[in-house]
User: Which sequence fits this backbone?
RNA sequence: GCUGGGAUAGCGAAGUGGUCAAACGCAUCUGACUGUAAAUCAGACGGCUCACGCCUUCGUAGGUUCGAGUCCUACUCCCAGCA
């Protein structure tokens, strides 16, 4: 039984489908806003919905460290905890193994541990030091599944080893092989836990208790296998083959959103699109820019997440469509980044993107005395959007929370309307 | 009016004889950001130069000294206390 249904494959190569999760059926391809610590920074659940999000991503590593998965479980699971009733996917912490590991902290200083690596990988799992307080912890493939099941998420990622894009062949090979062995352990543990859960539900319903119709109880969460292997075709093929044999619910393509100076990832994405099972969803982890997502979807990827729209928004940058009327000026470069903190926007009266209909840019249209249609001048009208670049730049400079909220809403809308468009055209 | 204290780069503020074009913070400018240690980080921030480097600055004007943001004198302005 597969919970992914491929409806059709568009001429562009984009796969249109749907994914059935314990928290509802969602259309693919989709983009997941990143809410690492149980919050898409600055956004409330209803705001995410209003901008078109129907699934979000959170993080095992972070929630385990704080507030702890047991606390979240006792408070009703992650969905209830954060009051988000749509599906949630959690990353496993595999990326943190990468980003907290030695040689990879390219920016800033280690806040807790000086220059020492926070991570030590062994066959059994990964020992790491909390970035919060330096305390030691140990993740195994089983532990990471347990945490995610306790969080109650819809789509789980197994613990993997995500090597730097700059790693040597041997390092990548070792990481890939370990990822495969860990995937097998994760799968075995996951299946046994799910089986227990299912039999318990069966048992309860046969005992005269009311049958549970809630999809939360009847639709099982999904576990992905994560394909590693760097840019090496042999390793990628081998890894994919072994994971496919284990029959995961879906497949993730990892290790491509790291160390971008070495990025020639398209060949690998193309390969993945060709060899991963057609009837399972494919998740390209951590990618990417809007243009990246278009390209990847055409190569057969179904799921995306990226910190760019939210992080860039907090750093003052917004995406602007490069189109004239309905034609893109250049198909492979549809979006430009604009940093509103640049001095040129201080007095810019225009909205971020006049072709954008997000809640920030959208403004009621009216015709003036000469019959020209333009943005309503009635700024005082409630709920009318139409915030000027000058105003948003001012808010950002003043460190007003509303500034980064506006840019975040806009950028997320860009991503979410983009995938929506992908599904339709 | 008297007695103290003070005037440093856009602002605030270190610096009390050489290593000072001058710490640090803010502001400003630019860049980076792809499974979030990230409302963060990096760089620039007197002038000229790609750069080595050169030139002009620490209230104003003189002076002492090989050498002054730092010491002395006068002046201008500000602050506090006392009249």
Assistant:
């Amino acid at each position: 039984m597969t919970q992914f249904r491929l409806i059709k494959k568009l001429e562009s190569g984009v796969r249109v489908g749907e994914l059935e999760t314990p928290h509802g059926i969602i259309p693919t391809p989709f983009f997941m806003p990143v809410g690492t610590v149980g919050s898409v920074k600055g956004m409330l659940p209803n705001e995410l919905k209003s901008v078109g999000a129907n699934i979000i991503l959170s993080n095992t590593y972070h929630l385990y460290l704080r507030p702890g998965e047991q606390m979240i479980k006792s408070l009703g699971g992650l969905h209830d905890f954060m009051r988000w009733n749509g599906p949630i996917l959690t990353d496993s912490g595999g990326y943190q193994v990468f980003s907290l590991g030695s040689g990879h902290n390219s920016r800033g200083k280690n806040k807790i541990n000086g220059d020492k690596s926070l991570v030590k990988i062994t066959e059994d799992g990964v020992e790491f030091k909390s970035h919060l307080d330096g305390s030691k912890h140990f993740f195994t493939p089983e532990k990471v599944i347990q945490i995610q099941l306790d969080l109650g998420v819809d789509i789980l990622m197994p613990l993997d080893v995500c090597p730097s894009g700059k790693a040597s062949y041997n390092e990548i090979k070792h990481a890939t092989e370990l990822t495969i062995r860990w995937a097998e352990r994760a799968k075995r543990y996951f299946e046994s836990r799910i089986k227990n859960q299912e039999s318990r539900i069966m048992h309860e319903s046969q005992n005269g208790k009311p049958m549970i119709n809630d999809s939360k109880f009847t639709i099982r969460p999904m576990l992905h296998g994560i394909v590693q292997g760097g840019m090496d075709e042999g390793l990628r093929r081998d890894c994919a083959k072994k994971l496919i044999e284990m029959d995961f619910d879906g497949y993730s393509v990892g290790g491509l959103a790291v160390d971008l100076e070495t990025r020639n990832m398209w060949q690998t994405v193309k390969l993945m699109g060709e060899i991963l099972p057609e009837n399972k969803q494919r998740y390209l982890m951590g990618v990417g820019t809007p243009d990246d997502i278009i390209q990847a979807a055409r190569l057969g990827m179904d799921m995306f997440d990226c910190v760019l729209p939210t992080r860039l928004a907090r750093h003052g940058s917004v995406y602007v469509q490069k189109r004239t009327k309905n034609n893109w000026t250049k198909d492979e470069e549809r979006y430009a980044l604009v940093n509103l903190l640049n001095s040129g926007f201080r007095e810019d009266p225009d909205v971020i993107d006049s072709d954008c209909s997000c809640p920030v840019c959208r403004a009621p249209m009216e015709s003036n005395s000469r019959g020209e249609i333009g943005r309503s001048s009635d700024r005082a009208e409630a709920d009318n959007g139409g915030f000027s670049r000058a105003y948003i730049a001012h808010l950002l400079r003043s460190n007003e929370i509303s500034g980064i909220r506006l840019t975040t809403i806009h950028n997320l809308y860009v991503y979410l309307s983009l995938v929506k468009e992908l599904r339709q055209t």
About this structure: Residues 108-112 of chain A have pLDDT under 50 and may be disordered.
